[in-house]
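Input C-alpha cells:
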C-alpha cells in the first residue's frame, strides 16, 4: 500500500494504516451501484492486507444523493471484526477479502 494518502488508527495496541482510493473507478460512478472500497494493513512491518468492500455509496456515484462517510469508529469496528474472522495482519500471505453488509463483515 502506498504511504501517500494513508491515515493511521490505533486498535488493540497496534497501529494500522488505511486508505480509501480517492479517484473512483468506472464501476463506482456510472452504474448507480458504486460503493467505497478500502485497504488496511499494519503500519510497521505489514503482512497481510485487509480489503473491504463497504456498503457505503461512493460520493461520485450518479445515484448518490447523501453521503454516509466512513468514520474512524467504523474502521476500528471493522478491524476488530476482521481479527475475529481470523485475519492475521502481521503474517505474510494472501489478502483477506471482505464485504460489509448491515455493518457486519463477511468473507468474500
Amino acid at each position: 500500500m502506498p504511504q501517500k494518502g494513508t491515515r493511521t488508527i490505533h486498535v488493540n495496541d497496534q497501529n494500522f494504516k488505511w486508505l480509501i482510493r480517492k479517484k473512483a473507478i468506472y464501476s463506482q460512478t456510472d452504474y448507480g451501484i458504486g460503493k467505497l472500497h478500502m485497504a488496511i494493513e499494519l503500519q510497521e512491518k505489514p503482512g497481510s492486507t485487509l480489503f473491504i468492500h463497504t456498503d457505503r455509496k461512493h460520493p461520485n456515484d450518479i445515484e448518490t444523493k447523501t453521503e454516509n462517510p466512513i468514520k474512524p469508529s467504523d474502521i476500528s469496528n471493522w478491524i476488530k471484526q476482521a481479527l475475529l474472522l481470523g485475519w492475521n495482519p502481521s503474517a505474510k500471505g494472501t489478502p483477506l477479502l471482505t464485504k460489509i453488509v448491515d455493518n457486519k463483515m463477511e468473507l468474500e
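The chain has a mean pLDDT of 86. The CA atoms of residues 59 and 67 lie 6 Å apart.
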